[in-house]
UniProtKB/TrEMBL annotation, chains A, B:
InterPro entries: HAD-like_sf, HAD-SF_hydro_IIA, HAD_sf, PGP_euk
Molecular function GO labels: metal ion binding; phosphatase activity
Pfam family, one: Hydrolase_like
Coiled-coil zones: none
Lineage of the species this protein comes from: Eukaryota, Eukaryota incertae sedis
Record's protein name: 4-nitrophenylphosphatase
GO cellular component: cytoplasm
PANTHER family on file: 4-NITROPHENYLPHOSPHATASE-RELATED (PTHR19288), FI11325P-RELATED (PTHR19288:SF93)
Binding site for Mg(2+): D23, D25, D257
Keyword flag Metal-binding: yes
Cofactor binding mode and count: Divalent metal ions. Mg(2+) is the most effective.
Length: 310, 310
């Protein structure tokens, strides 16, 4: 049974957890709107000496883009190193697997390209720029030249996904034995008016052709995300000369708005989990997924209300 | 154990089967090349009073396009009505389910549009023409207007598949409760240099977003394909004043080059099955799928060689 957050529970969590890991969209903000109370919540945690880290499956922006977004929305003291995006995790993972300078065929947005470059890999020129305005027939798709330096296909949410691009990614994987990595596998991207296809839709079109499932580096996958989270916690301590105990999942709280990504990751990584109802999940999810959710609260505004006079 | 075709078996099949149902690509031709002996095989069967029907998962052409192709490749006496394409079956199926004049959002090629028009449904203007040359952002994709007359999404192999198109198809299915039908779900399209994404790749990107699997009207699905095959056999008889017994699967032979579509359909529809090795399947498939394959031969040239002095 999930525990509804009240003043007493909220304050106990602050004593028992030295690390709070936050999902971003649906938790801190929703689209362009800040969730009321969220910046204050982060401020309170920092003042209480609690590590605050941010874990997002969104692969569209780079970590430096995110740092700017945090500042612009009124979150104080959030550094690039505190933010762990799926594009960053995927890039770190690929850098550990491939020789420096290896080519990567990308299905995704600019955030992925920037993170790959930062770790010394070479993303191909975006497919849609390479073949801008081209009208295709099947024979031309079949004849697209492959670059032998490409050792991996990295797929995220890609607004430029197209049949020729799916074909080329699939040929890299099957013909050239390129690694197949996905930033995340979310089926949908929630938007104001409903939903759009998530990264999982782009990924599944390639999986279906190749018969291969990708290595997923976003939530709810634990590996390699959990180890990168650990590294991020160490960097956080070094930067702030923190004197809390070294990071350990049992003393960490995963705060998120989705069961299938945030709560699943938190549970499988050995963390406590707090579901906020300000994003995707509803009361129904709370009833259905009691084993993944330790705590529930309506939003961070409620949480900070309970702890604000600590 | 599958039986390798020899002279005796080939001639016995001719006595015991009054209907031969052929897959096209990989059986009668391979890309632009006719399989040697295939036109002669069809000619012999017709001369022997055996029904010859043609069943293809390819949804790119209409049945009249196909009839022209048969004639151009030297196959004599093949009428439009003898050809059962997945686009035709899907259109017949939708016409039976929806009010006349209903709109259909199509992910696929011209063959689908023509078959839909023939049964009195209204395919939307192709998405790629409607938004030709447009550069998209996520907000614009989210704001694409939906047509309330659209009652179904029909998906086949679509060289114009794109993120905005996947999004729109998914919104029709989830928001407007449109039916979701696929001409077929082949994972790949075999081509000379290897493979391209098949209809199944286009379909799976939508399935992943909507959480819904489509009704598949192509092989290996039995329903509604088997009943339309039955109707085609009756038309065949009427046109040719045939005096063989009414069509029955137990006296029909399914001839194809793929186990996962042709052999599976033949088996599940209660027909005998003959695998030809002139297309996708290899000797390895023969060893692995003995329960789906009754007979095996290298190609139709070998078959006609055995029966040519009947």
């Amino acid at each position: 049974m999930s525990i509804r957050l009240v003043k007493e529970t909220a304050r106990r969590l602050l004593k028992e957890c030295d690390t709070f890991v936050f999902d971003c969209d649906g938790v801190l903000w929703k689209g362009a709107d800040v969730i009321p109370g969220a910046p204050l919540m982060i401020k309170h945690l920092k003042a209480a000496g609690i590590r605050t880290l941010f874990l997002t499956n969104n692969s569209m922006k780079s970590r430096s883009d995110y740092a700017e977004r945090f500042a612009g929305m009124g979150f104080e003291g959030v550094a690039e190193e505190d933010i762990i995006s799926s594009a960053y995790v995927a890039s770190e993972y690929l850098a550990a697997q491939l020789p420096a300078g290896s080519g990567v065929f990308v299905c995704g947005a600019s955030g992925i390209y920037r993170e790959l470059e930062k770790v010394g890999l070479k993303p191909c020129k975006p497919f849609e720029e390479e073949y801008k305005g081209k009208a295709w027939d099947l024979h031309e798709v079949e004849s697209i030249p492959l670059d032998n330096n490409v050792k991996a296909v990295l797929c995220g949410l890609d607004i430029h996904m197209s049949y020729p691009k799916i074909a080329t990614a699939s040929r890299y994987i099957k013909n050239n034995r390129a690694m197949f990595v996905a930033t995340n596998a979310d089926s949908t991207l929630p938007v104001k008016t409903g939903f759009l296809p998530g990264a999982g839709s782009c990924v599944s079109s390639i999986s279906r052709v190749t018969g291969q499932e990708p290595i997923v580096t976003g939530k709810p996958s634990v590996d390699p995300l959990a180890s990168i989270l650990n590294v991020a916690a160490q960097l956080y301590d070094r930067k702030r000369s923190s004197n809390v105990a070294p990071f350990h999942p049992s003393r960490a709280l995963m705060v998120g708005d989705r069961v299938d990504t945030d709560m699943m990751f938190g549970r499988q990584a050995g963390m406590r989990t707090l579901l906020v109802l300000s994003g995707v999940a509803t009361e129904e999810h709370v009833q259905e997924h009691t084993s993944e959710i330790d705590y529930v609260t309506s939003d961070l505004g409620e949480f900070v209300h309970y702890i604000s006079d600590v």
